Amino acid sequence: MTGKTARAFPLLGVLCAVLGVFAAPALAHDTLRSSTPVSNAVVSSLDLVELEFNSHVRYPVVLLHDAAGQRFPSGTPRTRGSKVTVDVAQPLPSGSYTVAWRVVAADGSPIEGEIPFTVRSSTAPLPSAPVSSAPVTSVPAPSRTPVSATGETDEQSGLPGWTWAALAGVLVGTGALLMWRRRKPAGRGTPS
């Protein structure tokens, strides 16, 4: 190895280390920290949905629907820093519900999730058991595949495209710099 090439390798190592340190925080995705209602909670009523994230979020969308997919009216989502709140417009009858949410994280990537919960209203009468001699059969309710425990989806697991483009640019620039430094100046090293 020539002296110039030997000096370039430590420089390249330092450059990679510095870029790695600054890129590490970008690998962490924002997540849902807590919610009201909590996942799989049983509540007597619900007036307000509250979502708290580990970082500031923007452009929230919050939908409330029952097990059959029927949407229930809710107010306009409000964002204050890392918290999103939305009013539930009307009392919910007893049953299974899901809060579906989607926000744009601080790094610009969308994150979404679902929070299933059940309302057991003390004011609503419980259905009585049918009186019949025939055997009772039950039809299983349709189930939705829940997102992971943190509310993250598969689309969040990779690096954003701009990260790959920046990394490629750094590698191409480093390669060009090394090639330029290795090039012999014109007129040197050739016999006259």
Can you offer a commentary on this structure?
Keywords: Copper, Membrane, Metal-binding, Signal, Transmembrane, Transmembrane helix. One of its GO terms (biological process) is copper ion transport. Residues 122-142 have a biased composition (Low complexity). With 192 residues, the chain is of the alpha+beta class. The protein has a domain at 30-124: Immunoglobulin-like. It contains two helices and nine strands. It has helices spanning 3-27, 161-182, and strands at residues 32-36, 41-43, 48-53, 58-66, 71-72, 78-80, 83-87, 95-104, 110-119. A five-stranded mixed β-sheet has the order 2-9-8-4-5, with no helix packed on it. It has a four-stranded antiparallel β-sheet with strand order 1-3-7-6, with no helix packed on it. The protein starts with a helix and ends in a 10-residue tail after the last helix.
Which features would summarize this protein structure in a list?
192 residues; alpha+beta; Immunoglobulin-like; five-stranded mixed β-sheet; four-stranded antiparallel β-sheet; 2 helices
Topology:
Blueprint lengths: L2 H25 L4 E5 L4 E3 L4 E6 L4 E9 L4 E2 L5 E3 L2 E5 L7 E10 L5 E10 L41 H22 L10
Parallel strand pairs: 2-9
Antiparallel strand pairs: 1-3, 3-7, 4-5, 4-8, 6-7, 8-9
Helix pairs in contact: 1-2
Please outline what is shown here.
The protein has helices at 3-27, 161-182; strands at 32-36, 41-43, 48-53, 58-66, 71-72, 78-80, 83-87, 95-104, 110-119. With 192 residues, it is an alpha+beta fold.
